[in-house]
Amino acid sequence: MRAVNFRELIRSKSGFTLIEMLMVLSVFLIIMTISVVTVPRYVEKREIESFLQQLSHDLHYAQALALHDQTLYRVNLNTSSDFYMITQNTKRVLTREFPEGVTFVRGSSTLNSVITAYANGSLSQTGTWIFRTKHYTYEFKTLLGEGRHYYHEQ
Question: How far is CA 77 from CA 29, 111, 146, 147, in A?
Answer without folding.
Answer: 45, 11, 20, 17
